[in-house]
Amino acid sequence: MKLLIKLGGTLLDAVDSRDRLACQIAAVRSAGHEIAVVHGGGKQMTRYLAERGVPSTFVGGLRVTTPETLDAVLKVFAGSVNHELVAAINRAGALAVGISGIDSFLVEAEQMDPALGAVGRVTKSNPVLLHLLTANGYVPVVACVAGDRQGHVYNVNADQMAVACAAAFGARQLIFLTDVEGVLDGSKQVRPLLTAAASRRLIAEGIATGGMQAKLNAALSALADGVEQVRIAPGAATGVLERILGGEELGTRMVTA
Fold it and tell me: Would you call 9 a catalytic residue per the annotation?
């Protein structure tokens, strides 16, 4: 089965959490699945900038990306966060390859809004590199940086990067591993199953807001682009990937209908 796993940056900040997830990813690959990974790193980015006296400014949940911030994006997202995860997966027994959307035009983008600086909106994903790597037993680990045909570099929301890669790759499942238990309903209970229509209702009724609203919108885009199901699950749960792939209703599973 082709899988796309998106890891939130918070899960990768601590060595033990990163190693635990790396072992699970390696096990999934050993079981014969073709797997690609997309990761965030916002927490690490904010810390890196703060250490250098650079404030982090957000508009609508997106980090305003000045030239100075973009330099940090490359150093942190495509540098330390990416390579620490690649090293952990390699240590766990798989063969991981660190890349970004820039590589071989994997993900192309355009400037979203001049007021946001170098924040990109995905326009196209070219899955040839993912197919090449996964078909030969490698685990591509994708940092959320994209480019365009003119050589510009863009900071792209990691969830949107994951959706673009999952759809182009032909992933049957897109698994968002996060720091929450799943999608909550109006009673603050995790919904084990959500249709696209039910997801839209949670947004329309103001139950899913902020980061969860953005996550649901990303999931809806993935379903519309042909991904069979999307899972939003707690990355800290023991054996989370094995349990999901074993059929356990962990977190929230989203389907078209």
Answer: yes
Q: Do residues 73 and 145 touch, judged by C-beta distance below 8 A?
A: yes
Confidence of residue 61 (pLDDT cuts 50, 70, 90): confident
pLDDT, average across residues 221-248:
96
Are residues 190 and 76 part of one domain? no
Among the options 8, 9, 120, 182, which is catalytic? 9
Of the residues 117, 159, 182, 235, which is catalytic? 159
Q: Which residue is it, tokens 């590199």?
A: 129
Tell me which residue range forms the domain holding 191: 176-257
Are residues 64 and 9 part of one domain?
A: yes
Q: Positive or negative CA dihedral for 240, 244, 249, 251?
A: positive
Determine whether 159 is an active site residue: yes
Catalytic residue among 8, 40, 41, 42: 42
- Per-residue pLDDT tens for 133-142? 999 999 999 9
Of 247, 192, 185, 236, the residue nearest 212 (C-alpha): 185
The verdict on whether 210 is a catalytic residue reads: no
**How many degrees, rounded to 5, is the angle at CA 212 between CA 206 and CA 208?**
15
Same domain, 5 and 35: yes
Q: Does 89 have pLDDT greater than 90?
A: yes
Same domain assignment for residues 19 and 100: yes
Q: Is 43 a catalytic residue?
A: no
pLDDT at 100 over 90: yes
Q: Choosing from 40, 98, 215, 251, which is the catalytic residue?
A: 215
pLDDT in tens, 171-212: 999 999 999 999 999 899 999 999 999 999 999 999 998 889
